[in-house]
Amino acid sequence: QVQLVESGGGLVQAGDSLRLSCAASVRTFSTVTMGWFRQAPGKEREFVAAISSTGGRTYYADSVQGRFTISRDNGKKSEYLQMDSLKPEDTAVYYCAAGYNHYTPRFPSAYTYWGLGTQVTVSS
């Protein structure tokens, strides 16, 4: 059984920072690709960032490149998303995801398991 639980969301002002965490109850956490997606009201879910099983490769959406940093701790079975220089357009529900497809990490189809999401709201 696999369960992903996000935390760390909240209300911040533009320019502030926030760090999201994802705790994964996955036996073979070190073998899965981990990712972050987000969905704003009235919009489709979009890719934010992903990290390979070993942490050796990272992937970012153009909209967050240079501002967000994804990381993981296989010992703690956790994934993190450090978000700096937040903008109002970053406002969304952020979802943690895990999957065994290592070839298309930017697409939601690569992921088998999803968390329920954590709200991030950035005011202007």
Give short descriptive properties of this protein.
single chain, 124 residues, mainly beta, 7-stranded mixed β-sheet, 4-stranded antiparallel β-sheet, 0% helix, globular
General description of the model:
- With 124 residues, the protein is mostly beta strands.
- Helix content is 0%, strand content 48%.
- The chain has no helices and 11 strands.
- The strands form 2 sheets. Strands 2, 4, 5, 6, 9, 10 and 11 form a 7-stranded mixed beta sheet that branches. It has a 4-stranded antiparallel beta sheet with strand order 1-3-8-7, with no helix packed on it.
Task: Outline the fold blueprint.
Elements: E1 4-7, E2 10-13, E3 18-24, E4 33-39, E5 46-51, E6 58-60, E7 68-73, E8 78-83, E9 92-99, E10 113-114, E11 118-123
Parallel strand pairs: 2-11
Antiparallel strand pairs: 1-3, 3-8, 4-5, 4-9, 5-6, 7-8, 9-10, 9-11
Radius of gyration: 13 Å
Structure summary, number of beta strands: 11
* Portion in strands: over 45%
Helix content: under 10%
Q: For the report, how would you describe the main beta sheet? A: 7 strands, mixed
What is the gist of this entry?
The protein is mainly β and about 120 residues long. The protein is globular, with a radius of gyration of 13 Å.
